[in-house]
Amino acid sequence: MKELLKLLIEHFGAFIGAVLTGLAGFIFGKRKLRAEVAGINADNEGKEIENADKLVKLYKEALDDLGSRYEAKFTEFSDLSDKKVLMLQQQIDFQKRINEQLKAENNLLKAENTMLKTKLKDNGIVITS
Known about the structure:
This protein is mostly helical. Helices cover 94% and strands 0% of the residues. It has one helix and no strands. Keywords: Coiled coil, Membrane, Transmembrane, Transmembrane helix. Residues 85-119 form a coiled coil.
């Protein structure tokens, strides 16, 4: 029994030493872990600031370029509008020429119709219409 008690006392000291070592490691490790987390958070904040700065630069470039892009699109639209007006004017002129040709043809047909009616009348044929 004495041997058992002696054995327990020896191992109890080692057990207490291990528990104290673990407790000290936990306390000091906790501080170290907090410091590491704080460092990581600081790095993350720095990266977020860098990303925000890059995003601001992208928006700034897009806005700076906006004026020149607007001017190019306005010029393109203006040119297309001018071409449309020109094409519509050409279409109007074409329709006027067609109308003039049809009027001339109509006048010729009226004259021919009058001449034919006169010939029929001269030949004694009466047309009522």
